[in-house]
Amino acid sequence: MHFLDSHPLRGAFVANTLERLVGLIVEQGEDLLRDAGLSFPSRTASTVLLLGERTRLSAADLAKTLGQPHQLVTQRVDLLIELGIVSRADDSGDARRRILVLTSKGKRQFERLKARLAHAEAAFAALSAEIGCDLSGAALSAIAALGRASVLDRVRALEKMDGRSEKSSAGAKSA
């Protein structure tokens, strides 16, 4: 157990807790992929999945579709090229553009990945039932809610309310 896990203010450290959860899932994801005979890291699985399901994508297309920084996608693509999963090809419609395609090894790994992801989806559904919370749904809801009102906005609103209640209390005491 970590210091913050039992601290009365642990709720203020939700990012720390979620970062530990993400780290654990990524670590276990590596085992999951290795067990399926997949040779790429778990953090590149979404790239392989996307390239297997869609064609004629550039690194910029991947970045936009996955919602990831272009530099990060380029690093992951370079690793997948080194591993023989992906290759670059000329785009016949645009001489300036390079598209990314799965190699024959990549196509075989993509098929194994889809099967493993189907089982992972079921395993996460069972985990969600076990803990009484749809982790993915809760994360998406939290992302949307924080997009509407940031943590700072929320804290300032609470402080404003605290200021009003402190002024009200002070006014009632002086009356």
Layout of strands and helices, then pairs:
Layout: H1 14-35, H2 45-53, H3 59-66, H4 70-82, E1 86-91, E2 94-102, H5 104-131, H6 135-148, H7 151-174
Helix pairs in contact: 2-5, 3-4
Q: In this structure, how is the largest beta sheet organized?
A: 2 strands, antiparallel
The CATH topology of the largest domain comes to Arc Repressor Mutant, subunit A
Q: Which ranges are low-confidence, i.e. pLDDT below 50, for 5 or more consecutive residues?
A: none
Number of strands: 2
Give an account of the 3D structure.
The chain has seven helices and two strands, in the order H-H-H-H-E-E-H-H-H. It has 175 residues and is mainly alpha-helical. It folds into two domains: 3-132, Arc Repressor Mutant, subunit A (Orthogonal Bundle); 134-175. The protein has a two-stranded antiparallel sheet. Strand 1 and strand 2 (94-102) form a beta hairpin. Helix 2 (45-53) crosses helix 5 (104-131) and helix 3 (59-66) crosses helix 4 (70-82). The N and C termini lie far apart (50 Å).
Keywords summarizing the entry:
175 residues, mainly alpha, Arc Repressor Mutant, subunit A, 7 helices, 2 strands, 9% strand, globular
Précis, in short:
The chain has about 180 residues and is mostly helical.
